[in-house]
Structures are given as C-alpha cells and as structure tokens.
Request: fold
Amino acid sequence: MEYIKKRIRDIQDFPTKGILFKDLTTAFKDPRALHIIGWDLGQLYRDKGVTKVVGIESRGFVGGSILAFELGAGFVPCRKPGKLPADVITQTYEKEYGTDTIEIHKDAITEDDIVVIHDDVLATGGTMAAAYELIKSMNPKKIYVNFIIELTALGGRDRLPKDAEITSLISY
Reply:
C-alpha cells in the first residue's frame, strides 16, 4: 500500500475551506497503482459470491468498475439526481460540507444479489450511509461496504450500520 499512498495527492481546502482532500486521480493515472488497487480490492471479495458492485458517483465508479470486472460481477451506478434515465429510488443525506441526494435505478438490485457498495473515500460516512439504506431497501441477500481510503479521525464508520462488513485498503 505504500506504493499507492505515495501516489495520492493532498489538496488543501477542497471542496471547501478546512477540508484536506485525498485525491486518488493521481493514483488512478499510474498503471501499476491502478492494477494494485484493482487486484487488492478483488482479493477482499473473491470468495464472497458477489453479483453486483454499486459504485457511488463519481470516483466510486472507477474502483467500483474495476472491482466488478475483477469479480465477474455487474456494475451499478449510484448517482446524483437527474442522471439516471429510468425509474429511481432516492435518498437525501447530510455530509461533512452540506446536504446531498443520491439515486439508484429501482430495478438495479434483486433479492438474489450479493452486493459490494464501493466509494473511494470514507470521510464522515454520510454518502455511504445513504447508499447503504438505498441498497438495503432492495432486500439483497448480503451487502458489503468498501473504500480505497478511510479517514479514521473523521469517524465515518460510526455513521454506518453496526452490522455492515466494512473494508478499506488504506487508513489515514
């Protein structure tokens, strides 16, 4: 993971003043780093029977797509309002710098699915908690939660359901 950590750029005061943003785009553009991220994400779930990976907009699409490919699973986008073309379910939530809303297609997840919800960074946990509730309302067999980076000092795990199986590749 040191190879990956060295390729993550810190951006001060983004998206708002006082936030130190962990920018994974610098790791994603490095072929070796991207391969390591994909392989390591896949290793976490290869024996879990995962059928769908839900990626949270927008950087969660990168790792989520790679994870779905590694597992031979389908990929489902969880998006901001108005971006999905068919019928959706919606969840509004609080995050570290405001209120936001996410949506997913109503027919994206079935009761037969085993799902990994993926996002790039766990900060305060609001986005993932909302995504978890959306997916849970669709009654899949199992839900896993995954991040590339976890900012432990922000306590995001505390906002997620206690029964959620949460994994992160890197913790700061």
